[in-house]
Design a protein that fits this description.
disordered N terminus
Length: 674
């Protein structure tokens, strides 16, 4: 062991960097998420009754044509629209919370399209472009295009669809999601829409009603499902299936965040609420449906992408008890964010809830009430003191932060504080970085002092170390035992405080990594110059390259300057660090020189906010190693042994035990005869 060598630092740094690479790289490894080529497994949408009746060859059989539906007697009302209609309604006003545009159809009483008017598909729109609904952020779409060349039909859907199960099939004559319901729009005195009411009576003695009502000034729609018994048979519980969101598109198409996802939150007795989620399968051909295990009472269920959520929650205890199971179905559509010259398939998920509606006694009605959140995943909205019922939604924000939820909440809260002061999220990231560096500076200073004194001690006892190596050159066990004894006598073990600043910064790095991955605050947040969105790579100019990389293809669509600066500063930080004299430590340092390059490859297309943090942190570290040390030199004076605390007595004991075990093993091994 040579002077200036830190026995732990290079290995520890290698371990920490390797751990970071594994944690970050695993999220987009090809074997974890590489899609398979699509296969035409889904048939086209079935034809309607009218299409089937007019198909070629219809009625050509010699047998009498079967009636389109059984000739059952009509019981009670018969309510069905004659023509298919759509209604496009704008709820609220520009700038008002919950300003949205919704398109409904009476075919199945479904919501075909929903867009938020205060949020846009990307930043930079002028006032005129912001008024165009095509530029508004879509939360729900009724149809997704099929993958190019797959031979599949477009992925059809429609939110708020109600269908029957085996226990309720006798109450209808046609599928509820295909029949033409009546559709009535209620408006206020100024003509603004307030609600949409759908009704359908199939002539079986029951009347179905679905009401969608906008809650003014909020991101919620009230949903009412009613079942009225006019002349049906026996009353009792019936099971239906309700789809709150179909389909929800991706928000950004970022490989670091798999979207869209299905989610359900439940509470069991007095326990804390738990969140259960399902992400799209790694294989696009895996289209098997499934269900979420959500024990206890369902608090809410729905779908969400990186920045927005569509969540259905019950408004009373009876409605909460009606939600029995949260299922999900898969569909195959086109990846809307894939390069135009390299189209690919994308798996989408939709939630399907088993909802119990009791068929009441004749002349009575049963009604279930829900609220549908259709808005951003913002913690301040979910933790509003005026809306305590929304607090469980905050679980979804914590879910996005993963295992670093606590540190992520602290960092995002600090970022919001700085943003309130300066009004720029990029400057807020820089101020957060400076705050972290200031807080850990005393620890850094103490660590640097301890390591400098340790290096001076090593230089002083190096001749003794060399003497031990020569004396026990043929007996590694005795050499380790003698080295441990000498190091314990001289107090040469590296101080544990030397690693503390690194350990403190790693949770901050991973917490910020998780926060920037899905923080709504940084969505479309500009910094300076060409950096228009800190949640995306800085994208200085377009390249459009497709680079083969191991088992996948790396799409380098833009030239990103910040990751390159980040790597350059990392390398500069290593070059300004003290150089070890030991040959093994030098080899380790050379290996570590490649780690910033590897990290730069992994983080090349990550959020610009993280690169900005790392650039600021590395700049501060370089200034600290060069300028501050010149102004305020490190005191490497070795204190008296009486005041000198051992760096790591546990390590000394461990070395002694290892040497003793090897000595016993050698003693028990029989010597070979010469």
């Amino acid at each position: 062991m040579q002077p200036n060598e830190s026995p732990f630092s290079p290995r520890l740094a290698l371990f920490l960097v390797a751990a970071a690479v594994v944690l970050i790289g695993w999220q987009f490894t090809p074997w974890a998420s590489k899609p398979q080529p699509p296969q035409p497994q889904r048939p086209a949408v079935a034809a309607t009754d009218a299409q089937a009746a007019s198909a070629p060859g219809a009625g050509a059989s010699s047998q009498p044509a079967a009636p389109p539906e059984p000739a059952l007697p009509v019981l009670g009302s018969l309510i069905e629209d004659a023509t298919e209609r759509t209604e496009t309604l704008e709820f609220g006003a520009p700038g008002q919370p919950g300003y949205m545009r919704a398109t409904f159809t009476n075919r199945g009483a479904r919501l075909l399209d929903l867009r938020l008017g205060n949020y846009f598909v990307h930043g930079g729109f002028d006032a005129a472009a912001q008024q165009q609904p095509a530029n508004w952020t879509p939360l729900l779409v009724g149809e997704l295009p099929a993958p190019i060349g797959s031979g599949l039909a477009p992925l059809a859907g429609g939110s708020l669809a109600l269908t029957t199960s085996e226990s309720s099939a006798a109450l209808v004559r046609k599928p509820l999601d295909q029949v033409l319901w009546t559709m009535d729009v209620a408006r206020d005195a100024a003509g603004a829409p307030e609600s949409v009411t759908f009704r359908h009576a199939p002539g079986t003695g029951v009347v179905f009603e679905k009401v969608v009502r906008w809650k003014s000034g909020t991101f919620e729609l009230e949903i009412e499902l009613a079942l009225r018994n006019e002349a049906a048979g026996s009353s009792g519980a019936r099971l239906f299936r309700f789809t709150p969101a179909a389909w929800m598109p991706e928000a950004q198409g970022n490989k670091y965040y798999v979207e869209p996802q299905i989610v359900a939150a439940s509470r069991e007795d007095d326990k804390l609420p738990e969140l259960h989620s399902q992400t799209p399968s790694g294989s696009v051909n895996d289209l098997e449906p499934g269900s979420l295990t959500a024990p206890g009472r369902i608090l809410y269920a729905g779908a969400h992408n990186k920045y927005f959520a569509v969540l259905l929650r019950p408004l009373d205890d009876v409605s909460a008890a009606a939600i029995q199971t949260v299922r999900f179905e898969r569909g195959l559509g086109a990846d809307l964010h894939a390069p135009s010259d390299a189209p690919r398939a994308k798996q989408y998920l939709k939630p399907v809830l088993d909802v119990g509606l009791a068929l009441p006694d004749a002349g009575r009605e049963e009604r279930r009430r829900f609220a549908l959140w259709v808005g951003p995943k913002q913690r301040e909205l979910f933790e509003d003191d005026a809306r305590p019922e929304l607090e469980p939604f905050a679980l979804l924000v914590d879910h996005d932060l993963g295992m670093f939820a606590s540190i992520g909440r602290l960092l995002t809260g600090t970022l919001r504080f700085f943003h309130g002061l300066v009004g720029n999220w990029g400057v807020a990231v820089i101020l957060l970085t400076l705050l972290v560096r200031v807080l850990i500076f005393p620890l850094n200073r103490r660590s640097q002092t301890a390591m400098a004194r340790h290096a001076k001690k090593m230089k002083r006892v190096q001749p003794k170390m060399d003497e031990l190596k020569q004396k026990h050159a043929k007996d590694p066990g005795k050499l380790r035992e003698a080295q441990a004894k000498l190091m314990q006598e001289e107090g040469l073990f590296p101080p544990l405080g030397g690693c503390l600043p690194v350990f403190l910064q790693m949770p901050i790095f991973f917490g910020l990594f998780a926060a920037l991955r899905a923080s709504f605050d940084l969505r479309q947040a500009p910094f300076v110059g060409w950096i228009h969105d800190l949640s995306l790579p800085d994208q200085m100019f377009e390249l459009g390259w497709r680079v083969p990389l191991l088992f996948t293809t790396l799409d380098i669509t833009h030239f990103n300057l910040l990751p390159i600066l980040m790597v350059a500063l990392w390398l500069g930080q290593q070059m300004t660090a003290p150089k070890p004299t030991d040959e093994q430590a030098l080899k380790m340092q050379r290996i570590l020189m490649f780690m910033p390059v590897l990290m730069g490859v992994f983080l090349y297309d990550y959020a610009a906010g993280l690169s900005l943090y790392m650039i600021t942190s590395s700049t501060c570290a370089i200034l600290e190693q060069t300028v501050i040390k010149r102004i305020w030199p490190i005191d490497d004076t070795i204190p008296d042994k009486a005041k000198d605390k051992p760096g790591c007595a546990l390590f000394a004991k461990a070395m002694e035990r290892a040497a003793e075990q090897q000595k016993r093993a050698q003693a028990s091994t029989p010597k070979r005869k010469k």
